[in-house]
Design brief:
Layout (H helix, E strand, L loop, with lengths): L2 E9 L2 E8 L11 H15 L3 E6 L3 E6 L4 H17 L13 E7 L8 H8 L3 H9 L2 E7 L6 E4 L14 E4 L3 E5 L2 E4 L4 E3 L2 E5 L20 E7 L1 H8 L5
Parallel strand pairs: 5-13
Antiparallel strand pairs: 1-2, 2-4, 3-4, 6-7, 6-13, 7-10, 8-11, 9-10, 9-12
Helix pairs in contact: 1-2
Length: 240
């Protein structure tokens, strides 16, 4: 796809790259995912050891440097983007698949705090809610809110539901929620405004440092419904 871009300083050691569409007044949620999938490896290769952190979002990319020379970095980034514009994203990249993560989720109502209310609002049964949520394969579109928190899209439009007007002060680690057409797993206990449908027994927090890079933009995530008994067994380290 064709695109415009803007590079702005975001801090003394960071640049924010923002994409805008040349063909639409309002870009869709997933429109720039193929561009980011193609561009991120080029950024990682170009800046290599000088890159402290890379934070992709739906339409933007934050680059945080170890030893910042923002003028030089801006020029390097600009050169990469001109090259990218001259070699538009291959349509086959739309079929690009990163790593696929299959994550067990227990949709028991003791974990699915909003299941019953959502079912009533959508005129669906709880089983239909669970089926609609777990039958999709989601793409990792962005990382943010908290370390290892992956924004996944897109939820079936029949489930789309806004955030709570008043967020809960604390939900358990591993809670799985939806907000509009996004879904995500909370890696650790935290305040939450999303509609909570279930919980995974997996520890996705930074207690395990590998979780910091577990999800990357372009990866895919599937949720596998499990029983409460299976949830407890996994949490206790038992072999199923």
């Amino acid at each position: 796809m064709t695109f415009h871009y803007q590079i702005q300083p975001a801090a003394e050691n960071a640049l924010l790259l923002t994409f805008t569409s040349t063909s639409k007044a309002d870009a869709g949620l997933m429109d720039f995912l193929p561009v980011l999938q193609k561009f991120i490896p080029q950024v990682e290769s170009t800046f290599a050891e000088n890159l402290r952190e890379l934070v992709p979002s739906y339409h933007s990319l934050l680059l945080v440097f170890k030893n910042p020379n923002l003028a030089s970095a801006t020029q390097q980034l600009n050169d990469l983007l001109i090259e990218l514009q001259q070699n538009p994203t291959d349509p086959s990249l739309a079929d690009f698949q990163g790593q696929t993560h299959t994550i067990p989720v227990c949709y028991d109502q003791s974990f699915g705090l909003d299941l019953l209310t959502l079912a009533e609002q959508k005129s669906l049964s709880i089983d239909e809610i669970i089926q609609l949520h777990s039958q999709q394969t989601y793409q990792v579109c962005a990382i943010g809110f908290a370390p290892a928190f992956a924004y996944l899209g897109e939820v079936d439009e029949r489930l789309a539901s806004p955030r709570h007007a008043s967020p809960r002060l604390k939900i358990p680690a591993g809670s799985v929620g939806i907000a509009d057409r996004q879904t995500a797993i909370y890696p650790k206990a935290s305040p939450a405004g999303w509609q909570i449908l279930g919980q995974t027994p997996w520890d996705l927090s930074l207690t395990n440092p590998d979780n910091l890079t577990r999800f990357r933009v372009g990866d895919q995530v599937k949720f596998e419904p499990i029983s409460l008994e299976a949830f407890l067994a996994i949490q206790n380290g038992e072999t199923l």
